[in-house]
Amino acid sequence: MKIYGDMSKLNSKTRVIILIGESGAGKSTLSEFLDMPESWFVSSSLMIDIITKRGLPINHDTIHRVANEKYGENPYWQIPHMLEVLDKTGLLLLDGPRRTDEVKRLLEVCLETVIVRVVTGFQERQGRLKHRDGADTRLKESWQTKSQRPD
């Protein structure tokens, strides 16, 4: 796993840390390592709550469907939930935002933001996705076919 970003901006005034990267890159692994559970906001968690309430299986397809639905209704629908965590803890660790508009809005309302890109090789990402609960095998096979490139 490699981490990119302007780490010199990380200081006592930092209020938001946004982790970006491909599925299986290690964003959640890094979040767990940082050990800030009260500040950790996983972008898919609200979608998983909705899927669970609807009695649907939790997988890439249902998360994608709910994401498109909710973001179609309001491109900033998760922002109030993120800001609630920030207000409560003083720090927001955002794990995998879903839309660029969300990131732009957070940058507008929170100037003390650092964006960190997590990059991991294909084989490691593939292994993570293989062991992830609810991962859709068809998605992984399709992803692998489209991503045939050396690490």
The global form is globular
Q: Can you name the CATH architecture?
A: 3-Layer(aba) Sandwich
**What is the fold-level CATH name, i.e. the topology?**
Rossmann fold
Mean pLDDT: 84
What is the spatial order of strands in the main beta sheet? 1-5-2-4-3
**SSE succession:** EEHEHHHEHEHH
Distance between the termini: 12 Å
Specify the CATH class.
Alpha Beta
Give me the number of helical elements. 7
Describe the main β-sheet briefly. Answer: 5 strands, mixed
Proportion of beta-strand residues? 5-15%
In helices, the fraction of residues equals 40-55%
What is the assigned CATH homologous superfamily?
A: P-loop containing nucleotide triphosphate hydrolases
For the secondary structure, the number of strands is: 5
The gyration radius over C-alpha positions equals: 16 Å
Q: Could you list the spans in which at least 5 consecutive residues all have pLDDT below 50?
A: 136-151
Please give the domain count: 1
Class by helix and strand content? alpha/beta
Characterization of this structure:
By secondary structure, the chain is an alpha/beta fold. It has a single domain (2-146), classed as P-loop containing nucleotide triphosphate hydrolases (Rossmann fold). 48% of the residues lie in helices and 15% in strands. It is built from seven helices and five strands, in the order ββαβαααβαβαα. The protein has helices at residues 27-34, 45-53, 60-73, 79-89, 100-109, 122-131, 137-146, and strands spanning 2-4, 16-20, 40-42, 92-95, 113-119. The chain has a five-stranded mixed β-sheet with strand order 1-5-2-4-3. The longest helix is centred in the middle third of the chain and has 14 residues, at 60-73. The protein is globular, with a radius of gyration of 16 Å.
